[in-house]
Amino acid sequence: MFAFPKIHSFPPFYTQQQNSTVRENQLNEWGQLILAYCQHHRILTILPSGTAMATQEEAEIPPLFENKLIERSAAPEFRRSILNHLIHKLDRAQYVDPKQQDAGILIFWRTADEWARMLYEQIEKTGQTNSVLTVYELTQLDELAAGAEFRNMDYNMLARIVEVLVRQGKAQVLRSDDGLGRIEGVKML
Amino acid sequence: MPPLSVWQQVLVNKSNRPVLASDEHNVYIKDGIGLYQGRLKIKKYQNGRLYLTNRRIIWLDQNDQQRPIAVELSAIERIELVEGFLRSSPKIKAFLKQNEETSIKGEAMDVSGSTPKGSFDQLNVLDAALRLRSSTVTWVCVICLYNNLISTDCDLNAALPTCISCGIPPSRAQIERVLAEADELSRELTLNGPPPNLEACPKCTFVNHPSMRYCELCGTALRLVSSSLMKRLQSLDNPSSLSIISENPMGLILEDKEEYTNNIPYVKFSFRKGGELASYQHLLEEIQSIQWLALEAKGAINGEGTKIVELREPSPQKELVGGIRGLEKLDQLKRKQNEMVLSLSLDDFEQLMYKAQDILNLASTFKTVIKPQRHSFNIEGKTMPPLLFNKSSSLYHQELLRHVSEFLLNFELTSVTSMITLQDLFASYNRFLILSQGFGTELIPPQDLTKSLDLVDKLKMPIRLKTYLSGLVVVARRSHDLQSLHRVLLQYLIDEENSFTYEKYKSELLADNDGYMRDKYRVFNGLTVSQIADHYGWSPAVCAEELELCLEEQLLVVDEHISGTFYYANVFDPTILARLANEESQKKDAQNDVLAQQKLISDKLKTTYDADQNLIRVSDYSFGLSTSVPSLSPPLSGSLPDSLNQLNGLRFT
């Protein structure tokens, strides 16, 4: 069970503060809380409402933006500005599809670069370079090619990670030809 | 007797007010009055003032073109109120006495005796009066030569009258002589008819002009003037004109021939400008009191008789009439009742104003008894001389400001954080004025207050005005600095939160059966505007403004919730967070305190128990100390339950 920090039961935490400096601090606090929360529950994508969309674990997750104990919850407006802060200021989250914000937000409690390095090291360690690995093999197979960290990983997240490797020149991708351009397979170099 | 003769002449003084008799006084005055005789208007008597005295109803022309006329109240049998309808004004109908009029006339005829037919009423009355006068005779005091009066029918066997001037009684013989002379004189007159020289004064024999009523030389009333004058008048006028004059002494002209409903003579007063109700009531009262006096004079009332006042509500006669007329009637009825209520209530108000000074005096006698309520301006402790200053002086506002400032420093701005809004200052300063100087005090209007407060900076007063963004103006001490004020506020919030955490941990260690403490101390709930305002004695408006500024300065944060708005120290700021007491140390403090407290209780219980049971004194053995003292040392978490368990033996939970 995720132990919420003390600030989570601080009532003013749920009210958007008027003073810009105070608000900045408040939003930073929220950002830290979200990252810690997502890391603990291994959540990679959340909805703008704060509900976890894709998690690597199947477990009961306490709500993020509310505290039943003190009867406080952040207003939808405020939730949006918290997430915006996380995306644009802290650079630790991304819209799955910026044009369709309700589709979910990727939370990078580990940055994409870190994920990419982990994936590459794992593949290298297991000697699977230069062989094509499917997305299924990377995330769903009983004996994972990429290691336990990647189990049940959201496709969108995996795509971002792989893109980082591609940009670094460490991987090549095979895309589907159905027009959507989804990644079918990855070959580490 | 012709009813028109009821109108009498009235003397008027230079300012056009009626000259009243010595025991006569005005009761009510109303203008816009028209006169009616019977059913018809009296021509040219349609716009005048009505003076109701305790003896007459006097009518004066508004433009003084007509001679004023009057009706004696004693000539009125009863009165009746006639409501106005459409274009007809409300009226008072006064029914005239018929029988008494004629009887009076008869008497007058008897007295004058020689007066011919078509008697001259006025002169008759005059004659009667003269006769009445003549029934007193004068006697000259032998000591001071003062002319004293004595009535002819005075009883000589009783004590003799004394001289009014010197107080010496005359000799009986002198009085007898005077009376005999008078008797002789009157007998001469009545028996032998008028003496040959009619104009001669009966006393000094000076021949006066026939129009004189009193002797020009000695001032004695000329008794035969009336008859002589009458003779002259008779010779001048023919009898027919005389009869007209007697029927209509004032020469009143009606629109048409006299006419009365039911043939009962009456006059009407038409109230063109309203006020008929009040007049009616006054008139009714006066007539009743005159009738009462008449009854008394007749001896019809014994000494202890009282008048039964008939309370007659002027109306609710339910008359169900349909249609517009019915509605109109209802409306009229309602209006009348309203008017009644209003006039009655205003009567009371006039009474109150009349008694105002008495009430003020009364109130100030209670001043010592009344407890000053909310603001107990402790006047005994601090005395402030009242501001005695001419309001018109140019220095008035400066002086007022000084006085207000003194008042503020003494009573309102007693601490550094004190503030007061202008409105509150206005109220409390005036309250103070009343409290310290009594109810008659002149209060300070807001204009003067603001005007003098504008001078605050110019005069370098120890107070200053502060205007918030919302336009709220408060008065505060000059010394109090905005920044430090906010620091104080912040410190207060921090202290509150610290003490809360302390209490929270303390409550965790104590018994809590119903979970109330747990719920109460779950989380620090911040402070509302009103709590902070109460703590500092500010008004909520001021407090809200200050908190707003604190938010701007990043000292506080706000929690806006459906249950209210709560303020907290800004823990997003690490420096402020650091000022909150460490939770662990708080926890420890709480535990230590609770332990010490419990030990004290258990010790006490032990000693009382031992004393009750006559057991060994606890103090002889130090087991309580040796076991519980180590538990206070640092590894608290482990030792705590033990030390509490020890209390179980005493059934202490």
UniProtKB/TrEMBL annotation, chain A:
One of its GO terms (molecular function) is structural molecule activity. GO terms for biological process: protein transport to vacuole involved in ubiquitin-dependent protein catabolic process via the multivesicular body sorting pathway. Keywords: Protein transport, Transport. Pfam families: ESCRT-II. GO terms for cellular component: ESCRT II complex. InterPro entries: ESCRT-II_cplx_Vps25-sub (IPR008570), ESCRT-II_cplx_Vps25-sub_N (IPR014041), WH-like_DNA-bd_sf (IPR036388), WH_DNA-bd_sf (IPR036390). It comes from the Eukaryota. Belongs to the VPS25 family. This is Vacuolar protein-sorting-associated protein 25.
TrEMBL record, chain B:
Keywords: Cytoplasm, Endosome, Metal-binding, Protein transport, Transport, Zinc, Zinc-finger. Component of the endosomal sorting complex required for transport II (ESCRT-II). It holds the Pfam family Vps36-NZF-N. Belongs to the VPS36 family. InterPro entries: GLUE_dom, PH-like_dom_sf, Snf8/Vps36, Vps36, Vps36-NZF-N, WH-like_DNA-bd_sf, WH_DNA-bd_sf, Znf_RanBP2. Component of the ESCRT-II complex (endosomal sorting complex required for transport II), which is required for multivesicular body (MVB) formation and sorting of endosomal cargo proteins into MVBs. One of its GO terms (molecular function) is zinc ion binding. It is found in: Cytoplasm; Endosome. One of its GO terms (cellular component) is ESCRT II complex. One of its GO terms (biological process) is protein transport to vacuole involved in ubiquitin-dependent protein catabolic process via the multivesicular body sorting pathway. This is Vacuolar protein-sorting-associated protein 36. Its main location: cytoplasm. Residues 10-299 form the GLUE N-terminal domain. SUPFAM superfamilies: PH domain-like (SSF50729), Ran binding protein zinc finger-like (SSF90209), Winged helix' DNA-binding domain (SSF46785).
